[in-house]
Structure formats: C-alpha cells, structure tokens
C-alpha cells in the first residue's frame, strides 16, 4: 500500500481558460514522460504479474489483490498448476470483450473439461470493497455518470461512493474481469475477459475485476471477431490457443518481464491528465476542459 509521492491533487491542476487568441502549446505525452523522474515509476509486484504467452506474443496482466483478493489467490493457484496452458481465446465480441476459457466448456461434449485442480470452484462475489483510507487514491475532479467519485487507486481506474463507504474497480479499456453465470458465486477466475471496446461501465459492481492488462492489449483487441452471438467462435480453428500463463514471481529473475508502470499518484501522471483535459496545439484549438475516467491510459515502459 502506497501513499502519494506529492501532496498534489488533480483538482489543483485544472487549468483556467486561456485568453482569446493566446498562443499556447500543451506538452505532448511523449515530452512529459521524457521529463518524468525515476521514482515516479513503479515495478509491478512479481506475485501479481501474469505473463500470458500467445502465438502472437505476450500479454502482461497485473492482478488487483487489494480489490479482489479471493479471485487473485484463486487465479494464482490455477496459474501455478498450469490450468490455463492449452486453453483458448473462445470469444471476441466487437467493441466489448476478448474472453479466454476452457474451449471444452462450449462444446456439446463436455467430457474433456479441464479440472480446476486445487483451485476453488466457487467464490463469494468481490464486486466492491470497503473504502480503505490507507489505499492510494488519486481523485479525478471532472465528475462521472456512474459513480459519485472516480479516480485511480494503485494504478487501477476506480470509483467510490462515500455515502455507503464502498469502492470498486471500473470496466475501462484493458480491465480484466471474471466471467460468470447467473449465480454470483460462479465466477472463480477460470474464465477471464479483457475489455477491448468502449467502456461498459454498466458492468461495474456486477462482475469482479481481477486486474488490468498493462502490456499486449494490441494482441487482444486485434483478433478476428466471432460470428456467433456474443462473439463466440463457431469454428474451432478460429480459437487462439494459450501457450502458457506464468506468474512472474515463479520465473527466474532473468526471465521476468522487464516492465514498469507510471505511478498514478505522481506529478507526471497529473500533468498527463491535464494535458489531455486541456490540450492546445495547432490541431486542437478548442480544449475539452473535461476528461472521462476511461479515456485515461496509465503508461508503461520497459524497465530501465
């Protein structure tokens, strides 16, 4: 659990409207990131970093144990027992999700469904959690349609409602959620999905979000869309086989993914948001003056 690097809020960086005709230049994200300081970047905990190997490359997923601890633990168990190895991308629904699962679960003959091993078959739903003042919280002051407050907590886009004392992760682009049936306890982490389209925020507090893709989204979002209802593939040949999923903590140090993520409680992240909120350059002559939670991506880079 981390505290803010600087006593600065995003609200304090909301720019005043520029005078008419005033020439301004908003620093580009590339320029801002080039000026960032080493301490503004963090290395994901290897115990919470999944490396999913596909034929096209690697997808790195950071788990969110402070928000969904039971699901994170169950996923770790399945990864360590190689449950996901040989499973497949079974569903790609346009402007919605890419989902990976046991393909045998969608076949008429379910005799070959892969056993879960020592992982739990059912889990209590972890859709929200009690607000914890010890967790880092970087508020976004622009307002939100779906929640009284939104912002970032430990690198994850999140929402909260102080009136009921609850907070939760949001279904922004790249969020990794836990698929389930009607029974809220049926989502155990054996079937996961990543948001690849416009943020379906109506899913917030109805499904558990186990983590977030921090590298490799282009692999998941560019896959062919499934023709069946909800984007399921009708031809087994369309499915993309998962070669392996490994926990970075279980890899030799030399083989661990070399990645670091910009801290969402850093001054540079606040500047990135403000640059996007009030962008001014030769092309953007009218700044938006507002920004939506899910239009903000958290930068990552190869570790230095």
Describe this protein's structure.
With 304 residues, the protein is of the alpha+beta class. It has one domain (45-261): Cyclophilin, CATH 2.40.100.10. It is 11% helix and 24% strand. It has 4 helices and 17 strands. The strands form 3 sheets. Strands 14-4-5-12-11-13-3-2-15 form a 9-stranded antiparallel beta sheet. A 5-stranded antiparallel beta sheet has the order 6-10-9-8-7, with no helix packed on it. The model is unreliable at 1-22 (pLDDT under 50).
Helix segment count? Answer: 4
The assigned CATH architecture is: Beta Barrel
Class derived from helix and strand content: alpha+beta
Which stretches are low in confidence, meaning pLDDT under 50 for 5 or more residues running?
Answer: 1-22
Number of strands: 17
Q: Would you list the SSEs in sequence order as H and E?
A: HEEEHEEEEEEEEEEHEEEHE
Q: Report the radius of gyration as a whole number of Å.
A: 20 Å
Q: How many structural domains does the protein architecture include?
A: 1
Distance between the termini: 23 Å
Mean pLDDT: 92
Helices and strands, with pairings:
Layout (H helix, E strand, L loop, with lengths): L28 H6 L6 E2 L6 E6 L2 E7 L5 H12 L7 E5 L4 E5 L27 E2 L7 E3 L8 E5 L2 E6 L4 E4 L5 E4 L13 E4 L13 E7 L1 H5 L18 E2 L2 E4 L11 E4 L4 H11 L22 E3 L2
Antiparallel strand pairs: 1-16, 2-3, 2-15, 3-13, 4-5, 4-14, 5-12, 6-10, 7-8, 8-9, 9-10, 11-12, 11-13, 16-17
